[in-house]
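Please, structure for the following, as tokens.
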Amino acid sequence: MWKTVAGKEVLANLLGSRFYVVVLLVAALVATSFFVMGRDYKARLADHDLIKAKPGEPVAVNPPNALSIVAKGLDEAMSRSFEITPIGVTVRAGQKSGNTVFAFFPAPDFLYVVRVVMSLLALLFGFDLVNREKEDGTLRLVLANPVPRGAVLFGKWAGSFVSLAAPFLLVTGIGLAVLALDPAIRFTGGQVARLALILGLSLLYIAFFLSLGLLVSALTRRASSALVILLFAWVLVVFVLPNLGTLVARQAVEVPSVRALSEKRQQIWTREVLLRIRGQGDWPSHVKAIGAENDALEADYRVKFERLVALSKAINRVSPAAGFVYAVTEIAGTGIGEESAFKREVVRYKNGLLGSTLAAPDGGVADNPAFRYAYRPLGRVLAAGALFDAGWLAAGAVLLFALAYAAFVRYDVR
């Protein structure tokens, strides 16, 4: 029975103008996103060819991640040039964003389109599934027949989900296929699997907001009232809660600013230079002292920063939008966890150089190994939190539908 209701819902969407407006909007946004982010990725790839380390040069440079086209995240920070010196790791001067517009507005990647636009479209598909038919009088006619209310409700949800997911997957598939034709953009087999997982998470995210729309529709008598409530909930879930969680975490965990760290490093440098001028010790010992204190300063900062990130994530996961962002960026290899793993690998690379080649009398430049970073395996990424975020989205969608069913069973169709 639910299949019949779902087919009716799909047919009604195909005959209405809303479906085609959604198709055109999704096509335009996804195409624009892939075009802009594809150009940004190729520009950063060209920059990498200019700044990548020469043979034997003690520099850690990671090439841009092709999946940053889908979810840019922190990939730009990970693809900068890190110079290894006896006093620590420094970012080479003069590096800036490949696209300065992104400094003022969020990167229009695929993740942004799904997080903001697709969630809103899902609400617009679900806000009148019940109350609109009550207003039109058709719901009373349907339930006058021996049809289980659960079948009616699930059929409506399934028909709306198919109407929304089918054009989304079609447009996204075409966009990814066009990207793959570009010789400068190459997705490995592992990245293709990650893309498939990201698409699956996107469908879960859409299902969550569609279930939310269905719940509010089953709790209200008028579609206009449901729309106002859902727009407020959308703003709260997508924009307010993720930012609020970060602000609360900043108040609970004190992390020194980048400016304070820079000034502290300058003080350490000045102190050791003055000691050398006064003849207290040789220069190599002062350099070693500067490096040790800078390492301790950096280690303390990373511990506090990771504590801040952990608390911020725990609070922000109240919002499914935040959980979706965390999961997608980690799967793409552009998330906070991946960036932390990358920074630890840079420090490990620095320690290895200082313990061998850079400690040699001649500097050992020709013997310096090249820096190579291997992204964390997908299983490790899922275990680190992405699987929890996916489960939260799935459980949330099921719970919201269950609540909608409980409300629909008691719904007065008169």
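The first strand starts at residue 59 and ends at 61. Strands lie at 59-61, 81-85, 88-91.
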